[in-house]
Amino acid sequence: MKREVDVAIIGAGSGGLSARREVEKKTKNYVVIDGGTLGTTCARVGCMPSKVLIQVAEDFYRRNKHLEEGIHGGDKLTVNTKEVMAHVRKLRDRFVRGVLGGMNSWGQEHFIDEYAKFVDANTLKTKSFEITAKKIILASGSSPAIPDIFKGYESFLITTDSFFELEDLPKSMAVIGLGVIGMELGQAVSRLGVNTIGIGRRKNVCGITDPKLNDYATQKFSELLNLSFAGVEKVEQKKNQLAITTDGKTHYVDKVLVTSGRGAQWQNLNIEALGYDLNNKIIPEFDSETRALTKYPHIFIAGDNSGEKQILHEASDEGRVAGYNAVNEVKAFRPRTPLMVTFSDPNIACSGASYKELTDKGIDFEIGEVSFEGQGRSIVKLKEIGMLRVYGDKKSKRILGSELMAPDGEHLAHLLSWVISQEMNVNEVLNLPFYHPVIEEGLRTALRDLRDKIGGNEDWPLEIKMRL
Amino acid sequence: MKREVDVAIIGAGSGGLSARREVEKKTKNYVVIDGGTLGTTCARVGCMPSKVLIQVAEDFYRRNKHLEEGIHGGDKLTVNTKEVMAHVRKLRDRFVRGVLGGMNSWGQEHFIDEYAKFVDANTLKTKSFEITAKKIILASGSSPAIPDIFKGYESFLITTDSFFELEDLPKSMAVIGLGVIGMELGQAVSRLGVNTIGIGRRKNVCGITDPKLNDYATQKFSELLNLSFAGVEKVEQKKNQLAITTDGKTHYVDKVLVTSGRGAQWQNLNIEALGYDLNNKIIPEFDSETRALTKYPHIFIAGDNSGEKQILHEASDEGRVAGYNAVNEVKAFRPRTPLMVTFSDPNIACSGASYKELTDKGIDFEIGEVSFEGQGRSIVKLKEIGMLRVYGDKKSKRILGSELMAPDGEHLAHLLSWVISQEMNVNEVLNLPFYHPVIEEGLRTALRDLRDKIGGNEDWPLEIKMRL
């Protein structure tokens, strides 16, 4: 059957759904095409279920502080991991229902649950339809990548696509990759009693780029769970287990959770029909501020398949820009200040420019630092682990970026990314209210350290605005 | 013995210690006079030990969520309240040691551990000294006030001065006053198993001024612990207990925690020598931005005894301004944006202008609102209680203030007070990054609600800055 539409959106994930909301404001003649499982990567297999698992793991782990606080019986607490997984799925289903409920309201004519292939730059083919579209939005998402060394051992492998479907957690598990997902899930399952070995290919966790923070964080996380930074040296099947050798030691595990990257989903789209060669995993060139492909300005790209950072709020932004530009005069939109959080315990986060970015650009910056060991509220919480590093421009005294490992770090990262967005200098930030006793006072200590290093401002002798 | 100093500081609490730091930058000829217990109200009997108690109470209370998460044995957890109090004191002592350690470094000549009385506006008398001072800083603090109805029942009364010294918590307790301290400690002891009745004089908790939020919060807190809003109608001793009647019902309690206000400490200072009459509890008139007394511009006032809000970071600010102005040309300093937090669960907080302040001033404002029931991360945390109201100016679209009850509300309150400090409008705030899934997304929902009510800005169709 043939259909002619103003806009065809490939992918009903976070990018595609955000795009649809903008498209729908201008035209009812659009279609969203997705032959896969609905509900978004975020709600089904990403942000949401992982946070539920982490919450349970943290609640269970807290028993280790009970005795110090005068609470008894914590050593008798047990966790039923089948029930944990059922709880995770119960809440996940609530989040997915929310997404699907939103989709129900559009009307059936706007959705095709089949896969799309390009015929040419304005024509898509699905099993039942041939769709001619004035504008096309590509939001086909990403999927977990499997390293070659594990080819042939598929029955042992878990990815985030299958992890949350597990009836029960395995007794032992290797987690491959110590990025955001690996550290979040690795720490959580370790706390829930899974004999876990986390394996990265270099001494780094959660994409930290600040060398001092990375030294601290790799050390601290190594004390909290088994980590190896030597990569996977050898894989062999031994009866019902995989024998994985890393750093010269062999670990026998029931399952392997692969979190070593997500690849943009371009396969099966027949993107080659547009003259692109994806063999080398090259993403078609596009303008990140309009989302338009350079070669085909009527095609826009949004979400994980753009190969940029796979972060929900950025995927949504990209979707909105793509959707807006598909039905309006094309405009460029400035990306928000970067903000990236790993929901490990303590949180890892980066706000604004990373250490590496500043160094690569040759920017003359100074670093303010605080340790959360001995920080007031961290003492109260019995969570004295953490270090925050904040980067300030030596001349303008502006806050440029920060990397941190801290209790409640997710909140500090918001504050930091907000003042960076506002292009505030360190004196201006120190004039803001900090309550007592809060984790934010740790941030203030780091800001004072930065201020002392780059020189204060005589107009602000007390960190309070003078009435001039 | 006679001494002549540049600056005499009365009170070695948070206000006086902050003042001293500024004074010391300009003169070594100063003295701090305090005949009371050292270590600050904050560290000894205020902010810090209360946060420790709250932390234990929350950790113990969390067992109520365990079964839902697949954690077993939570119903067998017990709390040893003697050990809890010992833990509270252990951490309190660490905080107090920090304060005292700081004092040791000044040198003995700078401290007199006696009480001071005014002889005249430049002369103070202590037990051993007569001190002539060019400048005087008054930072004598506050102490708990006891309502008349409890006079004669002193053996049953606890204040924050004695609470943290309790060897054990009583079996039953009435908490008088549902302000910040009453709600924090009342909820904590209730969660730790004390049969608690919290009694306020009107249907209000934590000083909330927003009527809708107050209705919600009083309702929700009433579900979490026993509260009466009818005041204390009758008090009688019945054997070893006090019989307290409120709302027509009589409660038999072992102890009464009085948190119905703190009075500025002016007694024994012989302030009458300066011609002030304090009989009517009138605080000497002063300029809040210079801290100087109107009648005696060489005398400055800082901290709780100024009769303003009793908030640590404000007391510190006042101390710094008083100290600075005692040794420099007198300058006016603009107070920071208001920020007030009750560390109840959920937190209650007010940032910027309160509802009452805006209404009293006749400001034309609109309200954005969010419920945390059904909010993503609140679902994950199993903490679906809360409501946030944010006030925006109808014309400028600027954020003016907010009152909230929310999980992690302390962090939201910081974000809000910071954007209010920056005089940002709602469009600008919506352009800031909000990660996913975070409690901050609840704040965003309220901001979107506000934006939709006061009208968005065509330049910001996607909440993202256009490249113009």
Outline the structure in words.
- 2 copies of one chain form a homodimer.
- With 468 residues, chain A is of the alpha/beta class.
- Chain A has 3 domains: 2-143 and 263-327, 3-Layer(bba) Sandwich (FAD/NAD(P)-binding domain), CATH 3.50.50.60; 148-260, FAD/NAD(P)-binding domain, CATH 3.50.50; 339-454, FAD/NAD-linked reductase, C-terminal dimerisation domain (Enolase-like, domain 1, 2-Layer Sandwich), CATH 3.30.390.
- Chain A has 14 helices and 24 strands.
- In chain A, strands 1, 2, 5, 6, 7, 8 and 19 form a 7-stranded mixed sheet that branches. In chain A, strands 10-17-11-12-13 form a 5-stranded parallel sheet. A 5-stranded antiparallel sheet of chain A has the order 20-21-24-23-22, with helices on both faces.
- In chain A, α3 (47-61) packs parallel to α7.
- Chain A is globular, with a radius of gyration of 24 Å.
- The interface between A and B is large, with 87 and 86 residues.
